[in-house]
């Protein structure tokens, strides 16, 4: 593949991922290559390369054509186990490598999330996502960042119909603060432990909502 074609495939992949995570393409929805080419204004080759790449990453499957992958209930436990492992690993590395500027950025995000009652759920989710992405960035490990993105997508596909209570949101914000404190202190063990606890708290709320 020529460099220009590779760049185009990467761009198509990025745009397609945004369409999936943004809800334009839903789990189980079929994707027609010709329609996607027209929609993205891209040629058949970069679109096909992007689709193959996303299949390898677990976003898509081929069932007599391309389909946005769905998660079955039996995978829920594995999804949360993977998220706990990845979040713990990124927090551990971030405690070793985070810069003062990155710490300041995470601190500012925590401040913006409080008090949570004045924020819309969409805004709170956005800030929460930025906080966790900030930890991934501070870990400075590209492969681990890919694993983190993959577990985010798997969680998104659950389409969890649950609203967190105010007490649960406060507890989540307290855990954010504990993670930040561990990162600032360079305490790798505590950073990993609290990051894992953060995921397990979410699991304890979500699984009953899915009637598992």
Describe the structure.
By secondary structure, the protein is mainly alpha-helical. It folds into 2 domains: 3-68, Winged helix-like DNA-binding domain superfamily/Winged helix DNA-binding domain (Arc Repressor Mutant, subunit A); 73-209, GntR ligand-binding domain-like (Four Helix Bundle (Hemerythrin (Met), subunit A)). It contains 9 helices and 3 strands, in the order αβααββαααααα. The chain has helices spanning 3-21, 33-40, 44-56, 76-97, 100-112, 121-139, 142-156, 166-185, 188-209, and strands at 30-31, 60-62, 66-68. The protein has a 3-stranded antiparallel sheet. A hairpin with a 3-residue loop joins β2 and β3 (66-68). α5 (100-112) packs antiparallel against α6 (121-139) and α8 (166-185) runs antiparallel to α9 (188-209). The mean pLDDT is 86.
Q: Secondary-structure map with pairings?
A:
Blueprint: H1 3-21, E1 30-31, H2 33-40, H3 44-56, E2 60-62, E3 66-68, H4 76-97, H5 100-112, H6 121-139, H7 142-156, H8 166-185, H9 188-209
Antiparallel strand pairs: 1-3, 2-3
As a percent range, the share of strand residues is: under 5%
Tally of structural domains: 2
Number of helices: 9
Helix-strand pattern? HEHHEEHHHHHH
- Count of beta strands: 3
Proportion of residues in helical segments: over 70%
Give me a quick take on this structure.
Pfam families: FCD, GntR. The protein is 71% helix and 4% strand.
């Amino acid at each position: 593949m020529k460099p220009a074609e590779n760049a185009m495939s990467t761009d198509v992949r990025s745009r397609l991922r945004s369409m999936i995570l943004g809800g334009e393409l839903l789990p189980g929805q079929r994707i027609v290559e010709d329609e996607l080419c027209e929609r993205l204004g891209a040629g058949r080759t970069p679109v096909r390369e992007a689709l193959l790449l996303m299949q390898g990453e677990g976003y898509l499957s081929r069932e007599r054509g391309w389909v946005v992958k769905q998660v079955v209930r039996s995978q829920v436990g594995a999804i949360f186990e993977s998220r706990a492992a990845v979040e713990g690993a990124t927090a551990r590395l971030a405690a070793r490598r985070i810069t003062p500027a990155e710490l300041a950025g995470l601190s500012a995000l925590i401040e913006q999330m409080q008090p949570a009652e004045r924020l819309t759920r969409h805004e709170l989710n956005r800030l929460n996502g930025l906080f966790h992405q900030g930890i991934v960035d501070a870990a400075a490990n590209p492969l681990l960042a890919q694993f983190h993105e993959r577990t985010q997508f798997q969680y998104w596909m659950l389409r969890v119909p649950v609203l967190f209570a105010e007490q649960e949101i406060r507890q989540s914000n307290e855990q954010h603060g504990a993670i930040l404190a561990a990162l600032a202190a360079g305490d790798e063990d505590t950073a990993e432990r609290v990051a894992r606890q953060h995921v397990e708290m979410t699991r304890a709320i979500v699984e009953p909502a899915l009637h598992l």
